[in-house]
Design brief:
- By secondary structure, the protein is an alpha/beta fold.
- It has one domain: Rossmann fold (3-Layer(aba) Sandwich), CATH 3.40.50.1820.
- About 30% of the residues lie in helices and about 15% in strands.
- Strands 1-4-6-5-7-8-9-10 form an eight-stranded mixed sheet, sandwiched between helices. The protein has a two-stranded antiparallel sheet with strand order 2-3.
- Helix 3 packs across helix 4.
- The protein is globular.
- The termini are far apart.
- Belongs to the thioesterase family.
- InterPro entries: AB_hydrolase_fold (IPR029058), TEII (IPR012223), TesA-like (IPR020802), Thioesterase (IPR001031).
- This is Thioesterase.
- GO terms for molecular function: hydrolase activity.
Length: about 300
């Protein structure tokens, strides 16, 4: 099969093939996009006039949006924005639609280098993800907004919450899973492993669907973006002395996750002046996603808290 055919195949594979997360398997159908922007400039730098889009410093999206509408009303009372893990796709959250509280719009982030953005280079920094996503979210009508992220996505959601707070659109809540706290997450050499070793590690974590574990061509296609996003996580360092968030933060992790260390998870409580909480349960790194009912219930509780918006 030609390289072009392999790209086409990767685009139409189920999301579990592209991101691999155990039983967290859903189809990768199309999702709606928020008004495409060809470029963003000067996001959060002042000089913004009403009616003009808030944007980031010259980040080209080539018409491919970061934020995808999975389900819900265009003018919701509440909005959930999901940030996938390394190699994750926006479409992986489609099965969450039926579990959302009434009046909630479900959005998910699509990283470059994966799914319908597979021809693009992966993001170079977690703060790049946050700036681009923050730019698109700022174009939406105000609504009670909760950010959720798993693993890499947890750090991207945190940085996005910082962006939104800085421009006067603070998140209502941040829910994270499978991630050490900012400032604790750097380190690790997984991204420097050889191809065969890295693929084996991801398979052992439940991150590679067994149906493609021995597919050499698909492995060669998917490993570069997977490695790039793992590197973002392992080399991430938050800004020194950042302004704390003011929203509530809830953290989930599983006791069987080899990437977790309770002492390095607890500092999530220090990123905010708001209420915090930790939920611990059995399972591996992808346990919260493969059986997400408890996680979704906790997120829904955060979505429903607080006064109704006008």
């Amino acid at each position: 099969m030609s390289p072009r055919s392999r790209v086409a195949t990767a685009r139409t594979r189920p999301a579990c093939v592209l991101l691999g997360c155990g039983a967290f398997r859903v189809g990768q159908g199309p999702s709606r996009r928020i008004n495409p922007q060809q470029s963003y400039e000067s996001f959060g730098q002042g000089g913004h006039r009403p009616g003009e889009p808030r944007v980031v410093n010259r980040v080209r999206t080539q018409g491919r949006n970061w934020v995808r509408v999975i389900s819900g009303e265009e003018r919701p009372a509440a909005r959930l924005v999901c940030f996938p893990h390394s190699g994750g796709t926006a479409a992986a959250y489609r099965d969450w639609s039926s579990a959302m509280p009434a009046g909630t719009q479900l959005l998910a982030v699509q990283y470059p280098g994966l799914a319908d953005r597979i021809r693009e280079a992966p993001a170079g920094l977690i703060t790049e993800i946050a700036s681009c996503v923050g730019a698109e979210l700022s174009l939406l009508d105000p609504a009670r907004c909760v950010l959720f992220g798993h693993s890499l996505g947890a750090l991207a959601a945190y940085e996005t919450a910082r962006v939104l707070q800085a421009v006067g659109r603070p998140a209502h809540g941040l829910v994270v899973s499978g991630s050490l706290a900012p400032g604790q997450a750097h380190g690790g050499a997984m991204h420097r492993a050889g191809d065969a070793e890295l693929w084996s590690i991801l398979r052992d974590f439940g991150g590679i669907d067994p149906s493609i574990a021995d597919d050499q061509e698909l492995r060669d296609l998917l490993l570069p973006p997977l490695r790039a996003y793992i590197e973002l996580t392992e080399t991430y360092r938050p800004a020194a002395g950042p302004e704390p968030l003011h929203c509530q933060v809830r953290c989930h992790y599983n006791t069987g996750d080899p990437l977790m260390d309770p002492a390095r998870v607890e500092p999530w409580a220090a990123v905010t002046t708001g209420r915090t909480g930790v939920r611990v349960r059995p399972g591996g790194h992808f346990g919260s996603l493969s059986e997400p009912s408890e996680l979704i219930a906790d997120i829904s509780e955060v979505l429903l808290e607080g006064p109704a918006l006008p």
